[in-house]
């Protein structure tokens, strides 16, 4: 699976831009309507859209080649940890096989040098089989780049990484995760929908490499019964 700030198409046998754009348009219109029917955060989407557009490069995407029907228990278990320098070769290999316009090493380094940018990897048998790059913001997390190695897809690895990120949310601090997905990247849309994300708005002509729009998708934290009874500390609230 692979996904990035503009959540791109899967690697290898992805169709040509015109074929993706024209040939699947009818199906995507119908799917877009279904996707939005499940969204419940429309009121907040306008502010999110403005923030996303002003945040930086829009040509990056979160490409996902994960089967939305998969479950972690039917696949392999992975060890998820922080990304370190020696992971870069394997991360770059996954990046190149996943995206038509991959990040270069300097793109990763430039991103990870920012104080609010975090990298994590999924490791199986001492091999990096997936990675995720995300940003920390005051009240949310934002996924920039997300991919699973081609030979390790459809085994629940993407779901495990998503669940790891979701576990970082709380009602007292960061309450949601956001990302952008190309309108033609149906596999990414279905994957994120399967793990609880919902589309909240359309970002028109979002990408520099095509006339495609993007769906803004987000996951909202739902506090459990115990968390809902814990009072919010005033100092924590002021600290954001």
SSE layout and pairings?
Layout: E1 2-4, H1 17-23, H2 25-37, H3 42-53, E2 79-82, H4 88-98, H5 105-112, E3 117-124, E4 127-136, E5 140-148, H6 157-166, E6 176-182, H7 186-194, E7 198-203, E8 214-220, H8 225-228, H9 234-239
Parallel strand pairs: 5-6
Antiparallel strand pairs: 1-5, 2-3, 3-4, 4-5, 6-8, 7-8
Keywords, separated by commas or semicolons:
240 residues; alpha+beta; Aminopeptidase; 9 helices; 8 strands; 33% helix
Task: Characterise the protein shown here.
The two termini are 32 Å apart. The chain has a single domain (2-239), classed as Aminopeptidase. It is an alpha+beta fold and 240 residues long. Helices cover 33% and strands 22% of the residues. A hairpin with a 3-residue loop joins β4 and β5 (140-148). Strands 1, 2, 3, 4, 5, 6, 7 and 8 form an eight-stranded mixed sheet that branches.
In total, the number of strands is: 8
Q: Stretches where pLDDT falls below 50 for ≥5 residues? A: 6-29, 33-59, 65-73, 234-240
Rg, nearest Å: 17 Å
Distance between the termini: 32 Å
Helix content: 25-40%
Count of discrete domains: 1
Briefly characterize the structure:
This protein is of the alpha+beta class. It has 9 helices and 8 strands.
């Amino acid at each position: 699976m692979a996904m990035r700030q503009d959540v791109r198409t899967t690697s290898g046998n992805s169709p040509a831009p015109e074929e993706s754009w024209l040939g699947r348009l009818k199906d995507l219109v119908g799917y877009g309507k279904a996707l939005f029917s499940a969204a419940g955060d429309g009121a907040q989407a306008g502010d999110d859209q403005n923030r996303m557009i002003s945040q930086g490069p829009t040509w990056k995407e979160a490409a996902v080649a994960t089967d939305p029907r998969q479950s972690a228990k039917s696949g392999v278990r992975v060890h998820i940890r922080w990304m370190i320098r020696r992971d870069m070769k394997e991360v770059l290999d996954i990046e190149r096989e996943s995206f038509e316009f991959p990040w270069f090493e300097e793109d990763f380094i430039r991103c990870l040098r920012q104080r609010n940018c975090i990298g994590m990897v999924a490791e199986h048998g001492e091999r990096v089989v997936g990675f995720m790059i995300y940003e920390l913001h005051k009240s949310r997390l934002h996924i920039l780049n997300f991919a699973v190695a081609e030979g390790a897809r459809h085994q629940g690895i993407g779901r495990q990484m998503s669940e790891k990120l979701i576990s970082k949310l709380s009602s007292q601090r960061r309450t949601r995760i956001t990302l952008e997905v190309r309108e033609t990247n149906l596999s990414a849309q279905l994957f994120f929908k399967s793990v609880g994300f919902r589309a909240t708005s359309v970002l028109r002509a979002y990408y520099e490499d095509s006339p495609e729009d993007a769906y803004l998708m987000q996951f909202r934290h739902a506090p459990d019964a115990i968390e809902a009874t814990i009072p919010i500390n005033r100092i924590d609230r002021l600290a954001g």
